[in-house]
Design goal:
Shape of chain A: globular
Low-confidence stretches of chain A: none
CATH architecture of the largest domain in chain A: 3-Layer(aba) Sandwich
CATH superfamily of the largest domain in chain A: Type I PLP-dependent aspartate aminotransferase-like (Major domain)
Oligomer: homodimer
Largest interface: A-B, 86 and 86 residues
Radius of gyration of chain A: 22 Å
Organism (chains A, B): Tateyamaria omphalii
Subunit structure (chains A, B): Homodimer.
Keywords (chains A, B): Hydrolase, Pyridine nucleotide biosynthesis, Pyridoxal phosphate
CATH class of the largest domain in chain A: Alpha Beta
Pfam family, one (chains A, B): KYNU_C
Helix content of chain A: 25-40%
Strand order of the largest sheet of chain A: 2-8-7-6-5-3-4
Pathway (chains A, B): Amino-acid degradation; L-kynurenine degradation; L-alanine and anthranilate from L-kynurenine: step 1/1; Cofactor biosynthesis; NAD(+) biosynthesis; quinolinate from L-kynurenine: step 2/3
Number of helices of chain A: 13
Chain lengths: ~400, ~400
């Protein structure tokens, strides 16, 4: 049993199917942040960096996240945003393969990963190239021109899931460095970064880890590499001796070198509190419950609402923790659903996304959501000009 | 009159002279964050990005910071850490001067600025060079090999202040781009970024702006350049149409392109609340009050504690909002002061730093602090082996 509704502060009457975008508020996060503001920042002031453990927080929380993705202690650290962590991993990977010029990714990657690669390449000049192929074409596109393969495991639109172990092995057999973005994986599906052998993994913590809007990102570096990667973002808190204030950068041993600037203590405090729920549940149980909810949802929607076309893989083994349907009036339909308290979201041009988080959703919620979907699809509000005008305005 | 003690939640019996490192807790920040957690994240969930204004927060708060540094609306945006903002400015500056290879800085710059430059150079290869000279040698070192001059206005150890206008003019007359780090300036001294003509300014907000530990940084880009700078950190929230999810990066118009990833909403909420105090005070009054407090402090310390040697400029026009003294046993002396409730800090090898923030300090506080310093210096605890052992342990 993995249901932990009492851990969250969910509004009455809401069925929240958007935890894949922003997880809900954990009650402990609210309390812990209030305490941190008053008892740490307020009372301890500058001393809080040591006395309240702020300075060690990025590594301490990193270890807590690491446990959820198969990362050994001391291989994961928190900070910055996922975009920045993608950049760090990518810049370090290119340094590891100086004779190669290609970054390989796929069109199902979240755009910011591609953008960060484009920005890096633009700055480096010198013949670097970002090669973007269809998700199903990645395996065949890995060759010995590729410096780094950079993929998001779970597609943000469809939930389609890459096989981390197989693709990592393919990358390695071609001599490429493997970078996994776990934005839609951490807290959603069992992940084993150490087992798959990838060099880098990155991810955010405001989705299935419920860290709050703008919660910091994480980066994992494979243990044997952590003392050797060259930090492109050479910030003082990644220095071997930050408080020596040397004029020259000398990277800290291990994962600490991936820290950059001053950590966001308030956000980290919210995240650290949110992560406590994982001490009481097992990721394989979470996965089983998530698959059961998703399969129920797919079965009921397809039986009762034939106008929606499944956009996610039907085989649950190839799907993360979300289910997407295509519908031409998907934007309007999602607005109507949200107005009824069923919160999913929409991705252009026609994707209605529904995330499943068994920590706070059970089968009754899923069935109730399908009732609302059936009603909304019967109402056909997109045929009503007044409704559509309102949608465009808001 | 600029004293706003009631705005802050300062512990009883503390004289806080370390606002140059971490500003104290504003009461409004505590309340606003609690409300944001419950009424926005908790109640509005994913909708908060629009309904609670989170998406516009980096620009809205950027404008509030901009007002304090002479930046017109729409030229300053919040996000990331100061280290990251330094990197963004520096990478953009190098792109603007592709024929030049030198970054000029000084040894009084905060190390992370130098480290970020070193990391960037290391990645770029290609003959780039960071030239670090003594602060007083900067003017003479600006020549037409310099692509970018990167300086922190106020020295973090001594409070020595560069003349922004003069040095910016020198940089420009040599054809170099000027980047100012305002970490110890924003909220401390009157700054006029637009008036001085610099291309970039960056800074943090947890010091004199009281945004809390890990509060986000800001970046200013001169208005005529904002549509032209090339973002090296090409994140999706700096994209022209983030929610179109295009595969190709296309920078947003203006300052928005300096945004990178998802903004840290909780930290920004604390900061936004903290900034309200500036609506009720004038920066020139703050400056006058700060100088008066500092001059009193210097006069009293020198009269009563001759063992301390002034490390800061004696001329207040050349000094930021802190006063530093050198003392061989400075670390132990500062620990003894902190134990008495007078909180300053120490920077190796021998600098005792005292920050002056007239928002919550008045002349009585300063005189009381000097009483404690006189007592501590008379006690000479550093001659007591037991005390010194305790210091090493904690």
């Amino acid at each position: 049993m993995v249901l932990r509704k009492e851990f969250f502060d969910l509004p009455e009457g809401i069925i929240y199917l958007d935890g894949n975008s922003l997880g809900p508020l954990p009650k402990t996060a609210k309390d812990r942040v209030a305490d941190m503001m008053q008892d740490e920042w307020g009372a301890q002031l500058i001393k809080g960096w040591n006395s309240a453990g702020w300075m060690a927080q990025p590594s301490r929380v990193g270890n807590a996240v690491g446990r959820l993705i198969g990362a050994p202690p001391g291989t994961t650290v928190m900070g910055d945003t996922l975009s920045i962590k993608v950049y760090q991993a990518l810049a370090a990977a290119l340094k590891m393969r100086p004779d190669r010029k290609v970054i390989l990714s796929d069109s199902g990657n979240f755009p910011t990963d591609l953008y960060m690669a484009q920005g890096l390449i633009q700055m480096l000049g010198n013949g670097y190239d970002l090669r973007v192929v269809a998700p199903e074409a990645v395996a065949d596109a890995i060759d010995d021109s590729v410096a780094a393969v950079m993929l998001t495991q779970v597609d943000y639109r469809t939930g389609r899931m890459h096989d981390m172990k197989t693709l990592t092995e393919l990358a390695h057999s071609a001599g490429a460095v493997m970078i996994w973005d776990l934005a839609h994986s951490a807290g959603a599906v069992p992940v084993d970064v150490a087992g798959c052998g990838c060099e880098f993994a990155v991810g955010c913590t405001y989705k299935y880890l419920n860290g709050g809007p703008g919660a910091p990102a994480f980066i994992y570096v494979r243990q044997d590499l952590a003392d050797h990667v060259e930090p492109a973002l050479a910030g003082w808190l990644g220095h071997d001796a930050p408080f020596a204030f040397d004029l020259d950068y000398r990277p800290a041993p291990g994962i600490e070198r991936m820290r950059v600037g001053t950590p966001p203590v308030i956000q980290l405090t919210a995240l650290e509190a949110a992560l406590e729920v994982w001490e009481t549940v097992d990721m394989s149980d979470i996965r089983a419950a998530s698959v059961a909810l998703q399969d129920t949802f797919i079965r009921e929607v397809e039986a009762r609402v034939p106008d929606l076309t499944l956009a996610s893989p039907r085989n649950s083994a190839e799907r993360g923790s979300q289910v997407s349907f295509r519908f031409a009036h998907g934007y309007a339909a999602m607005q109507a659903l949200i107005a009824r308290g069923v919160i999913g979201d929409f991705r252009a041009p026609d994707i209605m996304r529904f995330g499943f988080t068994p920590l706070y959703l059970d089968e009754r919620d899923v069935l109730a959501a399908v009732d609302h979907i059936e009603t909304v699809m019967g109402d056909r509000l997109w045929d009503d000009p007044a409704f559509m005008t309102r949608q465009r305005v808001t």
